[in-house]
Amino acid sequence: MKQIFTTTALAAALALAAGNASATVKVGFMLPYSGTYAALGQAIENGFKLYVKEQGGKLAGQDIEYFQVDDESNPAKGPENANRLIKRDQVDILVGTVHSGVAMALAKAAKDSDTTLIIPNAGADAITGPLCSKNIFRSSFSNWQPSYAMGPVAFEKGYKTAVTITWNYAAGKEAINGFKESFEKAGGKVIKELTLPFPNVEFQPLLTEVASLKPDAVFTFFAGGGAVKFVQDYAKAGLGKSIPLLSSGFLTDGTLEAQGEAAQGLLTTLHYADGLDTPRDNAFRADYTKNYPKMAPDVYAVQGYDAAQILAAGLKAVNGDVSKKDPMRDAMRNATIDSPRGTFKLSKAGNPIQDIYLRQVQGDQNKSIGVAIKDLTDPARGCKL
Ligand code: BEZ
To answer: Per the omega criterion (within 30 degrees of 0), is the bond before 79 cis?
Structure first.
């Protein structure tokens, strides 16, 4: 029988003949492009695409075709949005998301459909804990990691009591737990845990309570638009001068321009910082700024960039053939990632083993002022792989 090929089918047939399963790898971004985390989602996509561009637009010889869904940081829409990419678009690789609650739904959908998932932000501890899975990887952090690093720093500064404030959802609660665990192990005491629903920004009543509790320090988790407002409100309430504000670095990453004077001097802990001044980071920052002149090269951009690096390591091992899931995933899990943050490897549970920097806001930078904890590994409690 005579065969008629379209250009795309011909390219696919040639790729097959060369030992590759398809001519393109379909990557589905499930990210927030609206709401309080919109800028974070955009930075992740930018970072991912930048790495692919630096490789000449291909990974392991494969063209990358992108699909996008705005998850709005809405957990209720998580399963439906995940299935848009998995069932409708039939993507090979899922990249998402920012919000821990949405990531839980995405991880379930990825597990049920055996789709490879790279999480470029959401820190939900459970995903690399009891729900860990061979098809799930993180290029970011667990919620426990950056906050755990701040406990000993706070205690060594002489703070004996702390009040915590965060949004009442997985990321906030787990970040607070991480801080509390190490702060209390060091000898401190968390005297009150204050919360408000995500993504509310009515901070005033909580700040009034902080003023009356008079702790030695406040520890917080906020990110994106909410972080901008929190830092401004904290300063406006006059607390900035009397009660030191500590946080994981999400409070001040990608937000400094909007926070202005109110953020100056703040101490945070995170797996990325400004001023690392390594050739790898300097090259990344120069290229990011060239391609996205209106956006700062922040932690979210790095996480997107490294998600692409993790995928590249897997594709390379199987010559671009995404149907070879097991060897591709083994290569992803065993890869050494040459990240702008510093080289890292993944734990068995799929979470980066990484240095957590102590940073201080100086001008428009989250300047590294040291390493708070080196090679911090998430405990992956409950993970059985
Ligand atoms: C989270 O929901 O896991 C998250 C969101 C923004 C920054 C960091 C963590």
So the answer is: no
